[in-house]
Write a structure and sequence with these properties.
There is one protein chain. The protein has 185 residues and is mostly beta strands. The chain has 1 helix and 20 strands. It has a 4-stranded mixed sheet. It has a 4-stranded mixed sheet with strand order 13-20-19-16, with no helix packed on it. Strands 5-9-8 form a 3-stranded antiparallel sheet, with no helix packed on it. A hairpin with a 6-residue loop joins strand 10 and strand 11. The longest helix is centred in the middle third of the chain and has 4 residues. The chain is rod-shaped, with a radius of gyration of 33 Å.
Length: 185
């Protein structure tokens, strides 16, 4: 838009000038590649700023990489700012993300050692709803029955795995049960 200024002084003399004002619209900044929730053990997340060439700032940011494991569980906001080099106009956008802690997983209902001929035991995982896995000695739909007779002699490593259905975060608890041979009579 061109603006004109006309001035008349006390003597009736007139002067004028014009100026052209250009108002540039900034390029709209946006972020892609970021979800609203991550588990604390998620790997590095590569973000894309649009238009390219801007900069990211926020907790857990290194360049355009967001690192949930570095910031830990919590609520964090990441800002992307882009400045158009030809107009000097800037725009920014902020996206917030929740980093969710892993569920606390444990197992009980077992002793550290059994004799080969001992009865089966039922393993109990917490929170309920996970699965027991191991090389030998486990049975049942969720692997929760440990039978010393079908397990290997020596150390048997067993893992209880659980995934939280709300957050989608998973964790494991690993333990060892030793099976001892029956004495020769």
């Amino acid at each position: 838009t061109t603006y004109a200024v006309v001035v008349t002084d006390a003597n009736g003399c007139r002067g004028s000038d014009t100026v052209e004002v250009i108002v540039n619209t900034p390029d709209e900044a946006s972020i892609s590649g970021l979800n609203s929730t991550y588990c604390v053990n998620a790997g590095n997340i590569t973000l894309t700023g649009i238009p390219a060439g801007g900069s990211f700032v926020g907790p857990g940011m290194t360049g355009n990489i967001f690192q949930p494991g570095v910031v830990g569980a919590g609520f964090y906001c990441i800002k992307y700012t882009y400045t158009n080099p030809s107009t000097g106009c800037s725009d920014d956008t902020t996206i917030c993300v929740t980093v969710t802690p892993l569920p606390v997983v444990t197992a009980s209902g077992y002793a550290p050692a059994y004799c080969r001929l001992d009865s089966s035991v039922t393993l109990v995982g917490s929170p309920v709803g996970g699965v027991f896995t191991g090389s030998t000695g486990l049975s049942g739909a969720d692997g929760s029955v440990f039978n010393p007779l079908t397990a290997s002699l020596g150390n048997n490593t067993i893992t209880y795995s659980y995934t939280d259905t709300v957050t989608g975060c998973s964790n494991t608890f690993t333990f060892v049960i030793n099976v001892k041979a029956a004495p020769s009579i």
